[in-house]
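[Automated response] Your request has been received and processed.

Submitted sequence:
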Amino acid sequence: MSLEDLVEALRRDVPEVRDLLRAHLAHLPGGDEFVLMGLLRDRALELFVLQQTSALDRLLALVDRALGDGDEALADAVASDFVSATPPWDAAMDGFVASWPVSLRAQAAIETARFNGI
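Generated structure:
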C-alpha cells in the first residue's frame, strides 16, 4: 500500500476524514505520510472521544493496514506519527489504545518498551 492507495481508501471508506484530506493535500500537494498520520491520529482520538465507533473502526482498520501492508515510509509514519505520538505508555490513553486493531496494539507495545528502555 502506498500513500496514494491509503488516501484513496480513506476517501472511499471514511468520509469523516475527507475534510482533513482536502486540507492536507491543499497544503502539501501529493501528501506527506508523516504529517497525514499525525492528522489521522488526532481525528481518531476525536472520534473516540465522541464515541463515533463506526467511523473510528473504519479509520483504524485502514491505519492498521497501512502499518502491515504499507510501503516502508507509510509503515514508519504509522509507527512514529500515529502510534508513538499517542503516546501509548500514558495511562490516559489506555482506552483509546484498547480500541485499536491488533497490529496497532502490538506496535504500541513495541513503542512502550522503547520508551521504558526495555
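Summary generated for your ticket: The chain has a mean pLDDT of 96. The CA atoms of residues 83 and 108 lie 6 Å apart.
If you did not submit this request, please reply to this message.
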